[in-house]
Amino acid sequence: MALRELTHFIGGKNTPSTSGRFGDVFDPNTGDVQARVPLADDAEVEAAVADSVQAQREWAAWNPQRRARVLQKFLQLIDDEKEDLARLLSSEHGKTVPDALGDIQRGVEVVEFACGIPHLLKGEYTTGAGAGIDVYSMRQPLGVVVGITPFNFPAMIPLWKAAPAIACGNAFILKPSERDPSVPLRLAELFLEAGLPPGVFNVVNGDKQAVDALLNHPQVEAVGFVGSTPIAQYIYSTATANGKRAQCFGGAKNHAIIMPDADLDQVADALVGAGYGSAGERCMAISVAVPVGKETGDALIEKLKDRIGKLTVGTSDNSAADFGPLVSSDAVGRVNDYIQIGIDDGAELVVDGRGFALEGHEAGFFTGPTLLDNVPTTSRAYLEEIFGPVLTVVRADNYEDALRLPTEHEYGNGVAIFTRDGDTARDFTARVNTGMVGVNVPIPVPIAYHTFGGWKRSMFGDLNQHGPDSVRFYTKTKTVTQRWPSGIKDNEGHFVIPTMK
Ligand code: NAD
Question: Can you tell me the distance from the alpha carbon of 385 to that of 283, in angstroms, rounded to the nearest whole number?
Fold first, then answer.
């Protein structure tokens, strides 16, 4: 059977590639190549940007309410199709179908937020700032903006970027991950069907070459990126050196602090879901558990061991599976390497997920859940992001030692504390040096109308994703000082800077 050959999506059409370069899209359940994704060259990027520039002029002239109606229609279409989309997503990513539905839903919620754009774009107004003088500000779109997105949320993150960007009147070019590009392409088709003018949402598939062409293109005004930290830093520095606005979200090492007063059954349930769900391929996965005190730690390990023993690893379309395969064979290799590094550095291997094979799917990219106890904080297994189903336990003697760990870690995406004590929780939320904090909530991903963003090396830039920050990121403020005086023609010139008296 011939391989499915994917395209770009430019000017409202599936556009076959002319670069002659392709990447493989795998089915992680079987290890087979299931499609070929084009890797754009500079000329294809140029064509996409030129198309977006044209489309944006008309789109920006639509009033915000009319733009919001397109988003509303899109919500209807995606709702009708979400089951099929989830299966498609799951077949390229490897996450289970229910988890893929969550991926879509979290994206949809930002589209819902962006439907409020008429309200969100209202500027500030001061009447009578001086005699006969009014001052007002308006938020205008930037022009053509780009989103470069990771493999692990192929619906959610493109929607987090696209919905506010287009609602604000920009044209949006998506450069999705080359590992699971089919859902992003389908999103572009659905936007068109919802009434979005051709060219307002273009998709350019590709790798570093396409990204670099976008970063260097003078008509790209802003770049939103999500992915690993080294690439986030590269994109941020290149985009900003080229005078573009940029917000680049990177990797993570999310800690969960478990105080001795916490309900350990609840904690163990939460950690198993947050550590192993989606095979740990979430930027908000909990990868470090920090029980406070020996008793807490020993009891927690027993409860985790028990629950891990009951987990089901299966194909992504198996409704009984707790998690599916990793995205690639490289990812399996990387996870195995980190487990070995942890062991070599002195960690205790409590549950070993390496070598797991699913019967009938031996070539799939599977690995089982792993639990490492007493991981030294000097080990790369603690310091670096593993991005797989590995929960590491670092023991702390007391609250202050526990607080120090996420506070001093180079990543600062998410963190959680489990306690029954409000005073401890308040102290923790105030002092921890991390962008998103959960109190008895293991994956504290803020809802759509708040903002999402980590600190330290989890984020380069200032404004967060979605919520009010996204409107600030995708618009520029123009401030008008106006005066309609009577008899201005009779006034003499003023040579001193005007001030409000
Ligand atoms: P990645 O950095 O490999 O790729 C992300 C994007 O960058 C892709 O579109 C890819 O094509 C492009 N890219 C890759 N190498 C490039 C290069 N050398 N030059 C230019 N572009 C390049 O990340 P990934 O493996 O797809 O995603 C997983 C990572 O994303 C993890 O580190 C995870 O923590 C992070 N992530 C962060 C957040 C967040 O909000 N902070 C959310 C999701 C994922």
Answer: 9
CA–CA separation, 318 and 137 (whole Å):
53
DSSP-derived pairing of the beta strands 411-412 and 390-393: unpaired
ipTM of the complex: 0.99
Q: Which DSSP category does 291 fall into?
A: E
- State the span(s) of the chain assigned CATH 3.40.309.10: 254-439
CA of 459 to the centre of ligand 1 (A): 12
Q: Is the CB of 117 under 6 A from ligand 1?
A: no
Q: Which residue's CA lies nearest to atom 22 of ligand 1?
A: 208
**N residues, the chain:** 501
Contacts of 343 (CB under 8 A, 6+ apart): 349, 372
What is this structure's pTM? 0.96
Answer whether 281 contacts ligand 1 (Cβ < 6 A): no
Rounded to whole angstroms, the Cα distance separating 264 from 255 reads 16
Q: Does domain 254-439 have CATH number 3.40.309.10?
A: yes
404 CA to centre of ligand 1 in angstroms: 28
Task: For CATH 3.40.605.10, list the domain ranges present in the chain.
Answer: 4-250+459-482
Are 121 and 64 in contact by the 8 Å Cβ rule? The answer is yes
The pLDDT value recorded for residue 363 is: 97
User: CATH class for domain 4-250+459-482?
Assistant: alpha beta
* 168 given a catalytic annotation: no
Q: What is the pLDDT of residues 434-458, one digit of tens each?
A: 999 999 999 899 999 999 999 999 9
CA of 248 to the centre of ligand 1 (A): 10
249 lines ligand 1 (CB under 6 A): yes
In this prediction, the residues of the chain whose per-residue pLDDT falls under 70 are: 1, 487-493, 501
The pLDDT of residue 495 is 76
